[in-house]
Write a structure and sequence with these properties.
Length: about 325
């Protein structure tokens, strides 16, 4: 409805003016009509020839009512229903349902309707605007439907291509093992070692089988020697601490057998002290030295005296 007098086909005048500007927003809120419906041929308006008892299908579930000074009354933020989108083309006009005072001033808008022909001529332009927004909504729905159809027609890649990779792999440990560095190595040390390994591998290109076999043997021998040095260091440290490593954990005279280095290191760390060292007994008390500087043996000395064995012969036992 435009600003000013809106003349209906029956001659009745609906005035949109300053009274409308002040009254409509207040009345819409007070009566709970912040939003109104757009129905078909006033089917939601009691007293209309087309009125239907609820529930009834409508063209738009809600629309805002706005009064713009100097322009008129507008419907905004229209929420079209599926029925409205489907049947709008059959109703070329829009008709408002205003309530007026005795002077004809529009005070309240109950609803609006899609209809074949509205009663107020001046509302025709507004109707075309509303229908234009509806057509835009229909076009948007059509575009969305086309996208969904295209997506459904696109073949889904085989499931085999979606490989799930384990996320519990410690790649840093693998790299450290590859370049023979401890876990305490810094990022810079790892980079340097990887660069050196890359250089070595690049030199393999062009070597014959014998050269590669000889290089591999050198690597194996080097690894064996490093393991032997580590093992000897563990054994020496344990012995110095007064610990006795079981024979089954030690290699034979040819360096074969025994526990791996890491297992041997763990065992040595957990073994108790069983041999007196540094002039102290196992319990930490000071040990007694004999005149020769050897650790005294009080229990053995008592046995020697009881048997009547001379000290020099006892020492040779």
């Amino acid at each position: 409805m435009h600003w000013g007098d809106n003349v209906a086909r029956d001659g009745k005048v609906y005035k949109v003016n300053e009274v409308t500007l002040a009254s409509v927003p207040r009345n819409q809120a007070a009566l709970g009509f912040d939003h109104v419906q757009i129905d078909f041929q006033h089917q939601t308006v009691p007293g209309s020839p087309f009125y239907k008892e609820p529930p009834v299908k409508v063209a738009a579930s809600k629309a805002g009512v706005e009064v713009v000074e100097g322009e008129g009354v507008y419907l905004s933020a229209i929420a079209w229903t599926q029925d409205g989108k489907e049947f709008s083309a059959s109703y070329p006009d829009v008709s408002a349902t205003p309530f007026v005072d005795k002077a004809g001033n529009v005070l309240f808008i109950h609803s609006a309707a899609l209809c074949p022909q509205g009663q107020v001529e001046g509302i025709t332009l507004a109707a075309s605007d509303v229908l234009a927004s509806l057509q835009q909504s229909l076009a948007a729905d059509a575009a969305e439907t086309a996208e969904e159809t295209a997506a459904q027609s696109t073949p889904t890649p085989p499931q085999a291509q979606q490989i799930e990779r384990p996320d519990n792999m410690d790649y840093k440990k693998l790299i450290l093992a590859l370049v023979a560095l401890p876990e305490t190595a810094t990022d810079e040390e790892i980079k340097t070692a990887l660069a050196a390994l890359t250089t070595k591998l690049s030199k393999l290109d062009g070597m014959d089988a014998a050269e590669v076999a000889a290089l591999s043997a050198n690597v194996v021998n080097l690894s064996t020697e490093v393991a032997r040095i580590e093992r000897d260091s563990i054994i020496a440290s344990a012995t110095a601490a007064g610990k006795v490593i079981p024979a089954c954990a030690l290699p034979d005279k040819d360096g074969k057998g025994g526990y791996p280095v890491e297992q041997l290191r763990t065992l040595a760390a957990e073994l108790p002290v069983t041999v007196p060292v540094n002039g102290h007994n196992v319990d930490g008390t000071l040990a007694t030295l004999s005149s020769s500087g050897a650790l005294a043996d009080p229990a053995g000395e008592s046995v020697r005296k009881t048997l009547g064995i001379k000290p020099d012969r006892w020492a040779k036992r």
